[in-house]
Amino acid sequence: MNRFRLMALVPFLLIAVGTGYAADQTAEEILKAIVKVRAVIHDDAVTAQSLGTEREGNGVLIDPAGHILTIGYLILESKIIEVTGPDGQVMNATFIGYDYDTGFGLLRVNKALNITPMKLGSSSKLKTGEPALVANHKGSDSVLGVRVAARQEFTGYWEYLLENAIFTIPPFQNYGGAALIGNDGSLLGIGSIFTQINVPGLGSLPANMFVPIDLLKPILSDLITAGRSRQPQRPWLGMHTDESHGRVFVIRIHPGGPAQKANLQAGDLILKVNSQPVEGQADFFRKIWALGTAGVKVPISILRGTKIQDITVNSADRYKFLKLSPEMGGKKETL
User: Is a pLDDT exceeding 80 seen at residue 300?
Assistant: First the structure.
């Protein structure tokens, strides 16, 4: 296989490696840094019901120490992690860290890999309309040329918000933990979900959302040494919400979580947070987080049936509700 330089992948896309780190690597060598990740999850894990107990996706080797970056839901609450390298060899791996705010997950293989890690690029330089590559662990047999459809906010029903997410089209099927690769062969993002994106003049199109790699750099050391970011944790309510015409509805309550203890229920319409009107899902999250760190009291006004009720939720640190075994972490230091 030739270098990325002027490699035509689809009619509208030509990609070039350029100079520097990737100049001495072939495309095939760069793609070897992408590995298959398989995880078996504890049966009683909080995420077992929604995400299943067997998960597969991709990860990217990012340093010589064997650290592999993936999307966190693939390995969250795992009891077994296996990594399959480009030679087909299956290796055991260790859960190292997870960051709820970004969605990144980190693991480490327990033996040396004869693979060159993929360089971390600069996702802030990736603009709407620019080309890139998406690839998974199958190497050159599964590489897709894409364009950035948007750099914009993404909200997730699980109390998740990214300010400047990367949306790409056309969609890539095996997106979980897939690598978004720039024109210099560097890693620009990690695949998270399949979604829809509104493109001016084209309407709603299927797309993938990638978590920008720049969000990893400030927290990577924390993930390796402590298993999570050392930044103060945001308040977590333990519920899933949906937005319709600017209104926010509760659709699911986590058993034993703060929302359940406060008697919030599926079907409740969120009206206000701390006496301030809620204008959409992202605004709802921001108003909660503006009150302080995990543990802060969150006053919420809801409409249940025909009655308006005021409820105070004692927020929590979401990590305390996850099944993260002490022996699985690389957590050399405590927070």
Answer: yes
